[in-house]
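Hi team,

Filling in the usual template for the complex we talked about on Friday. All components are listed, including any nucleic acid strands or ligand strings, so the model treats them as one assembly.

SUBMITTER: L.P.
PURPOSE: interface mapping
COMPONENTS: two
RESIDUES: 226
SEQUENCES:
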Amino acid sequence: AQSVAQPEDQVNVAEGNPLTVKCTYSVSGNPYLFWYVQYPNRGLQFLLKYITGDNLVKGSYGFEAEFNKSQTSFHLKKPSALVSDSALYFCAVYTGGFKTIFGAGTRLFVKA
Amino acid sequence: DVKVTQSSRYLVKRTGEKVFLECVQDMDHENMFWYRQDPGLGLRLIYFSYDVKMKEKGDIPEGYSVSREKKERFSLILESASTNQTSMYLCASNRGRVPNYEQYFGPGTRLTVT
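RESULT (copied from the run log):
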């Protein structure tokens, strides 16, 4: 079955430290992977995507993600966290037939 | 900027009422989607539409229907609202027939059914 998993409900990090939000997936064929962010009382906003090419993808707000085919992972990273990065992050994978499935979400808390 | 708007941010309805949630996008996108978002479950697809008057069931269509009479507008209908339909509803759109396009989301409608 096709799926996407975010193993951590919550990630806590101090401001200025690097952050990682984990995502693993299971799809047939080539994966099309996305990260979205949801700030309080807002809809989801697109951060970045992996379609093909370089395994390191750069996106909005200084975020990047590393695609690892052998580990079927697509972890979101940022070298130096900001308090304003505190939000709910969703990993998503396209599964075909116009459909995308989303992970359960990881809440990121950045402490000043 | 792509804009996806939803008719209400907050809605309170009674059990058994018929509920309409409206979504409008202004970027001429072919595809539109309705999700519900529940804590710990992420987003689950209710219905989607890839063209005017076309609709497809998502993963949790029971108790819902949709309408797409115009390209920019996609409506979600709860035929007879129940308390287990209390949730955040998100509309999204994107373009094209290929998988590499991200979705653009509206701000959401938080529906409470009492």
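MY TAKE: Chain A touches chain B through 24 residues (CB under 8 Å). Chain A has a mean pLDDT of 94.

Thanks, L.
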